[in-house]
Write a structure and sequence with these properties.
Elements lengths: L10 E9 L2 E8 L16 E4 L6 E5 L12 E7 L7 E7 L6 E4 L3 E4 L1 E3 L25 E7 L10 E3 L21 H6 L12 E5 L2 E5 L11 H11 L8 E5 L16 H13 L4 E4 L5 E8 L2 E4 L2 E2 L5 E4 L7 E5 L17 E5 L5 E5 L3 E6 L4 E7 L2
Parallel strand pairs: 13-14, 14-15, 15-20, 19-24
Antiparallel strand pairs: 1-2, 3-4, 5-6, 6-10, 7-8, 7-11, 9-10, 12-13, 16-17, 16-20, 16-21, 18-19, 22-23, 23-24
């Protein structure tokens, strides 16, 4: 039991009741450390027994306050276009007044401020933690755009998805009532309008087409027309690699609500094949899984091993996209079905994240926790 990281060792053991010369009730003390995130409101620690099914309160701490609850925190940098000359910084504060970023030796910019409320959350047939219980004030989300940056040069700075009633094409309570509101508020993307979270961006030799599987992707939808036009317009001389990204995967060995369903594949997968998408990346399922070059459930090409043992595809002879589920960065890991399809080449249910390296000639991927480059497609 002491090998269990959640085990709290007993110290200063003391007997409180004896019976027939034997101790039948004893107490002890122990200690455990927590890393606490500044959530701008007082917190308490509660100790209970009986587990989540039959919790019994044993004790609780006095309320603890943060020294500076309005402090600006959690800065997040994101690129807004393909020029490399602008970066967006988003952060959270307890102060609703606009704040400033000072950057690049003398430049400054003032933030725009937004937030969301409990009324912006949504409910389903089941009570949701975001709206019906467990609501926590998000504070104020600040965002500002730093412009005039020099691409590939360092700079320093300091700083002081669908909405309610829009609905998802998947009717499930898995957002916990958030409806994509916190995501789109905390992490603004270069989209054309609010509640239209599809966009494309180019970085180096890669064109990224990013869509929302939660919004209408049927053949008569606005999003379908956009992705069709976007992928068809890619200049493969400028960006030879085309990567398609979405949330719910087309291919997954974890069946049920976590997959996107056959209708999504029937509508969208032909676009990937027609426009010679090299790689499709998805999340939602909390594990890692990689396919062969697959189209309509059939392997069109299999990788070969290079001298280092890496799975490699020859990009000169395009066959079909390789599809990868990369949802293993957090939350509870998902297991795989016992029935393995022929298109599934690699399945790992461990925490990790994906890193990619692209040149004009090669695209290689590496899963961090395994230190293994598993996919490389060469144009030479």
């Amino acid at each position: 039991m002491k090998n269990d990281p959640n085990y709290l060792s007993c110290k200063n053991k003391e007997c409180k009741k004896y019976q027939d010369g034997k101790c039948v009730i004893s107490t002890c003390s122990g200690s455990i450390q927590f890393h606490v995130i500044n959530i701008r409101s007082d917190i308490e620690f509660v100790f209970f027994s009986g587990g989540f099914l039959k919790p019994c309160l044993v004790g609780r701490s006095t309320p603890l306050s943060f020294a500076n609850p309005k402090r600006p925190l959690y800065g997040h940098l994101s690129s807004i276009d393909s020029t490399g000359a602008s970066m967006r910084l988003t952060w959270v504060s307890g102060d609703k007044e606009p704040q400033q970023i000072q950057y690049a030796n003398g430049k400054s910019v003032t933030s725009t401020v937004t937030t969301f409320s409990q009324a912006d959350m949504c409910s389903s047939a089941l009570p949701s933690p975001a709206k019906d219980f467990g609501w926590h004030d998000p504070g104020y989300i600040h965002s500002a755009l730093m412009t005039g940056l020099n691409p590939s040069s360092p700079f320093s700075y300091k700083y002081g998805r669908d909405y309610v009633d829009s609905g998802s094409v998947y009717i499930t309570p898995d957002s916990g009532g958030e409806c994509g509101v916190p995501y789109e508020t905390y992490f603004p993307m270069p989209t054309s309008a609010k509640d239209k979270p599809w966009y494309s961006i180019e970085q180096g030799s890669v064109h990224f087409t990013v869509i929302s599987t939660e919004h209408d992707w049927s053949e008569n939808s606005e999003q379908y027309a956009w992705m069709q036009k976007d992928m068809a317009s890619v200049n493969r001389q400028k960006t030879p690699w085309l990567i398609f990204m979405g949330h719910r995967p087309m291919y997954s060995s974890h069946q049920g609500l976590l997959s996107s369903g056959n209708k999504f594949n029937e509508a969208v997968e032909p676009l990937l094949f027609q426009n010679k998408v090299d790689l499709a990346l998805f999340g939602h399922v909390h594990n890692y899984e990689r396919t062969c070059s697959v189209f309509q459930q059939k392997c069109k090409a299999m990788p070969t091993k290079d001298k280092k043992g890496m799975d490699t595809y020859d990009g000169r002879n395009y066959s079909a996209p390789v599809q990868v589920v990369i949802g293993m960065a957090g939350f509870t890991l998902d297991n795989f079905s016992s029935n393995v399809e022929s298109w599934s080449l690699k399945r790992i249910s461990e925490f990790g994240y994906l890193r990619a390296h692209a040149t004009r000639k090669d695209l290689s991927l590496e899963v961090s926790s395994y230190s293994l480059v598993f996919y490389s497609r060469s144009l030479t």
